[in-house]
Amino acid sequence: MAFIPCENSDYHSLNYWNNRFAQEENYEWCGGYSSFQSLFNRYVPKTDSILIVGNGNSNLPIDLYNDSYQFITSMDFAETSIDKLSSKSPPQINYVCADMRFMKFDRFFDTIVEKSALDVLFTKDSSPWSVSEATDSDVKNTLNAVKSCLKSDGQFISITFAEPFFRKKYLINFWNNLAVEKFGTMFHYYFILCKS
Asked: Membrane-crossing residues (predicted)?
């Protein structure tokens, strides 16, 4: 695969992502929308204002729009992905170039979604049992930013290939109620719903 980085730490490099997105049209971490659509429809009303963080070159915002979700904002820190996706998307979808660790949308969204964006933060560490201070800080900063961007009754959805145990120990510090659903056929992924 042409886009496998030389080292896992490259996943933290803006240059890596800009170069990758300049060449790669689409990649769906944890599968495409159809693989978890029934879960998403069950938990997210069509009228929700939705923010997708760390979207990359996923077609998720377009898929949500085509599934009758009306208020969609897609965010990534790589300008290349924002430019390419916005050029092929309906004008009703908003695109923002920002770092998920420091995003600021004061209590604006009903639902915030990440699909393997948190997974990237853990790639510098060799084991999920032993997380570096830098990773710990990045994850906590991201979740704190997510929480501050949600309405008081809002929800956060984390879609990941990581075992839920390793995510829940972070998520439980920000949300009281966590529900985990497994999806996928050949490979299994997790849909973690977080509510206060």
From this structure: none
Strand order of the sheet with strand 177-183?
94-97, 71-76, 49-53, 109-115, 150-160, 189-195, 177-183
Beta bridge partners of 28: none
pLDDT in tens, 85-132: 999 999 999 999 999 999 998 889 999 999 999 999 998 888 888 999
**In this structure, how many other beta carbons lie within 10 angstroms of the beta carbon of residue 124?**
17
Residue bearing tokens 């992924």: 189
Note the CATH number of domain 8-17+39-195: 3.40.50.150
What number of CA atoms fall less than 13 Å from residue 14's CA on the CB side? Answer: 9
Greatest Cα pair distance in the chain: 44
- Looking from the CA of 81 toward its CB, the CA atoms found within 13 Å total 27
Cβ partners under 8 Å of residue 63, min gap 6: 32, 33, 34
Q: What residue has token string 């933060």?
A: 121
* pLDDT value, residue 148: 96
The whole-angstrom separation of Cα 174 and Cα 52 is 18
Nearest Cα to Cα of residue 129 among 171, 101, 169, 172: 169
